[in-house]
Design brief:
Helix content: 40-55%
Radius of gyration: 23 Å
Number of helices: 17
Strand content: 5-15%
Structural class: alpha/beta
Number of strands: 10
Distance between the termini: 7 Å
Strand order of the largest sheet: 5-8-4-9-10
Largest sheet: 5 strands, parallel
């Protein structure tokens, strides 16, 4: 766990005892796998806790705890709008992505010890050393909050992926549409390197659906006329996407479409069997040409943003060989499209993924 984040969390709960800090470090490193049971049992436990936990209008939906994880606060009004089964799904998905890291646990405990020795914890270094010695002798087990912490803060939460918590407004919109119509469509557009593919993948896992990618609809060279490329958003095969994908979704049931491979300049057949929820991701997916189809399907349009320094860092890490083309060709084209059609302004939801944690 990042020492700065750890110190910040300790300051927010000054009445915590050493065991509460150990629990925090454990959760950041090990996630929620130890607390899992069957889906129905997890959901029932959430419902029971809701029954005994008063709603708190001032409670944030989640509190980041490092390691890409957060505490989902069950007293939050937004969280209480979720079906308990969806919270259980989030826990199970979190355990799949974050099975636990013993090395991170040891690193976090050492960071906690250093903070205590520097006088930067709510408790003394001696009390923490005694707690850690007993904890290690016991084999570093799961621990419970102290009674003092429970009285002061009434903790009621579940540990989940922070990115899942960030998707909460999207999931709430999806659940509303599912309850009303039995179907939902989510479309994620936004800056390259912002995390559209990551979020689409999580939604796909959550709702058991294969996301559809705009990368499969790059414009083939034969269609790249100067007039077309001069039009904002003209560098995708919007006609084929509208006909093959949106047409298929509007009809319902399984459909076929063609994937364009720009490296081979060739098409390959793909088949898609939509479930109750469909997900489309990629730059240009909010093109105004698709507005009628999205309106008919009551699509949830999501814009995922990232600031330029973080965008450059992510692209350099992900595609170092293509970083120059991203910066000088593809990103300017995206920005022109975003501005020409006010893509972010017309989105239903705007999200921004945090920078990855550094030790």
């Amino acid at each position: 766990m990042n020492a700065d984040l750890l110190e910040s969390l300790l300051r927010q709960t000054p009445l915590m005892e050493p065991v509460d800090a150990v629990k925090l470090v454990f959760q950041s490193a090990m996630g929620c796998g130890h607390a899992l049971g069957e889906r129905a049992a997890c959901a029932q436990a959430v419902r029971r806790e809701w029954e005994t936990t008063p709603e708190d209008a001032g409670m944030p939906a989640f509190t980041p705890i490092g390691g890409g994880l957060c505490r989902l606060n069950l007293a939050s009004p937004a969280v209480r709008r979720l079906p308990a089964e969806r919270v259980a799904d989030w826990m199970r998905l979190t355990a799949r992505h974050k099975p636990g890291d013993r090395q991170a646990l040891e690193s976090g405990l050492e960071a906690l010890r250093r903070l205590a020795r520097e006088g930067r914890t709510p408790f003394g270094a001696g009390a923490l050393d005694e707690c850690l010695d007993a904890y290690r002798r016991a084999g570093r087990p799961v621990v419970s909050h102290s009674e003092a912490y429970r009285r002061a803060y009434a903790p009621a939460y579940r540990v989940i992926l922070e990115n899942l918590a960030l998707l909460m407004p999207v999931v709430l919109a999806v659940e509303e549409r599912l309850a009303r119509t039995g179907r939902a469509l989510v479309v994620l557009d936004g800056d390259c390197g912002a995390g559209k593919t990551t979020l689409a993948g999580l939604l796909g896992e959550l709702y058991d659906t294969a996301p559809l990618s705009m990368d499969d609809f790059f414009l083939p060279p034969a269609l790249r006329t100067p007039q077309r490329l001069a039009t904002p958003g003209g560098n995708i095969d919007a006609e084929r996407f509208a006909q093959e994908v949106l047409g298929g979704l509007l009809k319902g049931g399984a459909f076929a479409y063609r994937r364009y491979d720009c490296h081979r300049d060739a098409f390959s057949p793909r088949h898609h069997a939509p479930g109750a929820v469909s997900v489309i991701e990629g730059s240009y997916s909010h093109h105004p040409r698709f507005a009628g189809a999205y309106e008919a399907m009551e699509a949830v349009r999501v814009f995922v943003s990232v600031d330029e320094p973080l965008q450059r860092k992510r692209i350099a890490r992900r595609n170092p060989a293509l970083a120059f083309r991203f910066q000088n060709e593809w990103i300017p084209l995206e920005k022109t499209y975003f501005q020409a059609y006010d893509i972010a302004g017309k989105a239903d939801i705007v999200l921004s993924l945090p920078e990855e944690e550094t030790p």
